[in-house]
Structure formats: structure tokens, C-alpha cells
Amino acid sequence: MSVSLTRTKKKGLESKQKLIEDVHNCVDSHARIFVFSVKDMRNTKLKDVRSQWKHSRFFLGKNKVMAIALGRSAQDEYRDNLHKISKRLQGQCGLLFTNKTKEEALDWFSNHTEDDFARAGNVATKTVVLSEGPLEQFPFSLEPFLRLKLGMQTSLKKGVIHLIKDHTVCKEGESLSPEQAKLLVMAIALGRSAQDEYRDNLHKISKRLQGQCGLLFTNKTKEEALDWFSNHTEDDFARAGNVATKTVVLSEGPLEQFPFSLEPFLRLKLGMQTSLKKGVIHLIKDHTVCKEGESLSPEQAKLL
């Protein structure tokens, strides 16, 4: 049987053709086109802007395809002078089609701002200085990071980080390093003290955010939540570090559940007394794989 490759359709080509059609439709239905650029943009922020500008249409990405749609020269442009716009489609930029006036659009975007957490590479909007004394807004486990990564002169006193001298986290107008950005984000959301908490007593919760943990927001009662999570279980494969829920013993005799290639692993890694007979692993004496209540080693987890 033969298949003609000329009949296969490429989704990539279809999406490009669809984008070109959408751009043409927007040219026909909107009075003005703006080229905008973005830097370190979060998708959620663009969604917010789109929701506030539902009367207009945004296109972001695929600069070459958008340039083709507009026309890259006076000879192939879709409408007069559109090739001049296509030449500006470089880097992280997009197109805004709107019926708003130039003044209305420029005024809205010039005055629209949204708060966001600092990211590496952002420019600091103000100088931030941590004062000498206790840093109760940070968990004690962060002390090595502050001292070794940020060069802060710190010490631990009764589980509380103390700053020996004032430390400038960042200076206005300078780009933030990854470490500076991480430090600025810490303790913002809930608040790390009674003075900066978002709601009463939230700083007590924030102090518990250490290690692998998270937050659950719910309208269920405390009893309903605790009851559900106390009784909810799911089966899963054993992993190193898990606690064995029961004692597992392999009995003397053939171990047909294991491929013969596993015999060296069982013998050398787990210390099992095994031998190969006609391609089948045989256990010479009973072997306890794990005991209830004990943590599993990587080898035990793999065997289970």
C-alpha cells in the first residue's frame, strides 16, 4: 500500500494560515494598529489586559507570520503602508488592533500599572535596606542563604536570625540578581510579622512555611477537612525514604516474579542468597525485604 505525502496536512501550516486570516480580518474591522513590546511578561498579566480591552484584539508572537500577513513590502502589503509596521516586528512584540483613538490608547497604557513580585533582571524601583537586629520575617532555615549567598552578616539566636549590621538588599535603578529577587519575594504574600501581615494572625501561618509544604484555602469546616485527609489514601509504588506499611518476606524457592537479569542485584545489593537454575532465580533461604515501620532504602524500594 502506498500513501501520497502530498495529501497530508500540517497543523503548523494551518495555524499560520489561520493567523494570517485573523490579522486580515482585524485590519478590515479596526481603525488603528499599534505595535507593542514586552519584557519578562507574565501570561496572567496579559490576560488581565485582554479582559479589560475586550473591544480590541491582541496578537503576540510569530512575528514573521504577522509580517507576512501585513505585507513585507509595498508590493505585497495587505493595505497601504502596512509594510512599514511589519518592519517593526522584532523581538518580543505584538500587535494591538483597536477602534480607540490614539490618545485613548496611549493614555490607558501609560497609566496602567500592576504590582508583581520581583524577578531576576528587573530594575529595583526603590532602595531596600534591612536594619540591624532580629529578622523575624525570615525562617531560621534561611540563615545560611542570607549569609553565604547575599553576604549578610547574620547569626542565629534562639532560633531567630539576627542581622549584625544594616544590609542594603538592592539599590534603586539597579538590576536585581536571582538572590536579591528571591529575598524580596520572601514574606510578602502573607506577611512575616504582625506589622505587615495581610490579615490578623496570618504571620503565624507564614512561619510554618518551611521545607516541602503548601497552603490549602477552603470553605469546608476544620473537621470536614481533617476527616477527609485523614481517611484518604491512594496506592502507589514504594519510594526510597517511605515507611514500610507491613513486613515483606520472600520465601525460599523459585522467584519467577523476577527476571533472571535481576539475580546479581538481589545477591550483591540486597544480600539475598540466590542462584540461577535454568534461567530462573532461586532463593536458597527466606529473606526479609523490609520490616513494618522502617524506612525503605533505594534498593528495597526498587525490589518492592
From TrEMBL:
One of the GO biological process terms: nuclear-transcribed mRNA catabolic process
Pfam families: Ribosomal_L10, RL10P_insert
Signal sequence range: none
Predominant location: cytoplasm
InterPro entries: Mrt4, Ribosomal_uL10, Ribosomal_uL10-like_insert, Ribosomal_uL10-like_insert_sf, Ribosomal_uL10-like_sf, Ribosome_Assembly_uL10
Keyword set, alphabetical order: Cytoplasm, Nucleus, Ribosome biogenesis
CDD domains the record matches: Ribosomal_P0_like
Annotated Large ribosomal subunit protein uL10-like insertion domain residues: 118-186, 238-304
Molecular function terms, GO-annotated: RNA binding
Subcellular location(s) of the protein: Cytoplasm; Nucleus, Nucleolus
GO cellular component terms given for this protein: cytoplasm; nucleolus; preribosome, large subunit precursor
Entry's family note: Belongs to the universal ribosomal protein uL10 family.
Record note on quaternary structure: Associates with the pre-60S ribosomal particle.
Role of this protein: Component of the ribosome assembly machinery. Nuclear paralog of the ribosomal protein P0, it binds pre-60S subunits at an early stage of assembly in the nucleolus, and is replaced by P0 in cytoplasmic pre-60S subunits and mature 80S ribosomes.
Protein known as: Ribosome assembly factor mrt4
Source organism of the structure: Darwinula stevensoni
